[in-house]
UniProtKB/TrEMBL annotation:
GO terms for biological process: mitochondrial electron transport, cytochrome c to oxygen. It comes from Perca flavescens. The keyword Transmembrane applies. Keywords: Membrane, Mitochondrion, Mitochondrion inner membrane, Transit peptide, Transmembrane, Transmembrane helix. The lineage of its organism: Eukaryota, Metazoa, Chordata, Craniata, Vertebrata. This is Uncharacterized protein.
Length: 75
């Protein structure tokens, strides 16, 4: 489909987008979840995610004064 659209001699961006939108068919199917996730599991997952992201940043920010007192590495 896409190759035939690109071979047109007078193809512009707007006509390409119109053709793609007209020929688009959704291929994503979904079903309801088999098991519902409770609030405890959600809270735990959010906490682990936050600690994973914010832990290293907090460590670095906490130790900035130590980093400033060090002498620069000698090369």
């Amino acid at each position: 489909m896409m190759f035939s659209l690109l071979r047109r001699p007078t193809l512009t961006w707007s006509t390409l987008m119109k053709d793609v939108q007209q020929n688009h068919r959704s291929t994503i199917y979904s079903k309801p979840p088999k098991e519902n996730i409770g609030p405890v599991q959600s809270f735990f997952a959010i906490c682990v995610f936050a600690v994973t992201l914010l832990g290293p940043a907090g460590w670095i920010l906490h130790h900035i004064p130590d980093y400033r007192q060090r002498s620069p590495p000698q090369t």
